[in-house]
Amino acid sequence: MAAVPEESKVVYNFLGKSGLKVANICLGTMTFGDNKLGMWGQTSEELAHQILDRYVEWGGNFIDTADSYSGGKSESILGSWIKKQERERFVIATKVRAPVSESNPNSVGLSRRHIVESIQTSLERLQTDYVDLYQMHLWDDATPVEETVRTLDDLVRCGKVRYIGASNMLGWQMQRLVDLTQMMGTSPFISLQQQYSLVSRDSELEAFQVCKANGMGVLPWSPLKAGLLTGKYKRDSRPKEGRIGWAAEKGLAAQAWPAWDSLLEDDQIWNTLDTLEDIAKKHGKSIAQVSLRWVLQKDIVPSVLIGTTKTSQLDDNMGAANGWKLSPEDMAALDAVSAPKLPYPYEFNTRLNKSRSNPFVPTYAVQNSSG
């Protein structure tokens, strides 16, 4: 493989209102190891290590996993690689909340018991004494959130965790976390890992407003929507490969792999892809790179997560990291073509506040911000 030019390597940004700097592209490891779904595109340990090595050549230092990915195999594969590295060079993030055992009713959620047990297991798999960012993978209705917040703070205080973050949250849930940490005097949440892309912008309405108002960085996952925003899928051809093709064949649908039939009916998605293709041709870039660049240029995004199954795919995605930018006109065109339809009260509130611009009052609107 060719050497990575210095001017193309990653940029390092502060992760939210913290002193921690991370690469502006984070390597997600959900594809590492096989899983019980028989999901398409999973990678062996050998290939995963090749991908990690190449990511480092791009200057990458930020790697994300979870205790539930591939039944814990993702953490183990990452751990066997970390063991051979200089640990302090890397920012390692993992998550807790999803069920990790079918036979143990306490192996799920955000109770003190499960969090303490989960972090210990994660540390053992990762072969490290601490994780840099420990994230709530999802809200847990069954556990008092005060119990969760206090436990996470205890992990920071005892040195097993450096910072805490959240993932897949509603707006009111993020605000509740902010209020509680301030009231209880515990470690603040510095980030929100959330699905965010040109075809998934609903979090701009609430959750991202909380992040912007409180200095939390947004870490977008699925910025290419399972490959949809790479341009490889065509409206007149049912997919037979990739995550979306796998899902279509299995008759499955989820946030991470949308149903093909629902995509076919959405004119806005195909209009967005047309605009992406035009901008990509203008810049001499791939559609995937333009899709990633749009997310990277949002001012609340310090780093974006990518997943990959081959080093060539990694190289293409990393080509969005540095050395070029979308123009304000490009950003505006993509903002407009992908703009979500605002339901009440968002549309009502936004429309009637257009004439109320006050330079002394901070504005948190994300959908019109190009960073």
Automatic annotation (TrEMBL):
**Keyword Oxidoreductase, does the record have it?**
yes
- State if Oxidoreductase is listed as a keyword: yes
The name under which this protein is listed is: 4-deoxy-L-erythro-5-hexoseulose uronic acid reductase
**InterPro entries xref list:** AKR, AKR_Detox_Biosynth, NAD(P)_OxRdtase_dom_sf, NADP_OxRdtase_dom
Q: What cellular component GO annotations does this protein have?
A: cytosol
Residue span(s) of domain NADP-dependent oxidoreductase = 24-338
In alphabetical order, the GO MF annotations are: oxidoreductase activity
Coiled-coil residues are none
PANTHER family documented for this protein: NAD(P)-LINKED OXIDOREDUCTASE SUPERFAMILY PROTEIN, NADH-SPECIFIC METHYLGLYOXAL REDUCTASE-RELATED
Q: Name one Pfam family in it.
A: Aldo_ket_red
Q: Which UniProt keywords apply?
A: Oxidoreductase
**Family (UniProt):** Belongs to the aldo/keto reductase family. Aldo/keto reductase 2 subfamily.
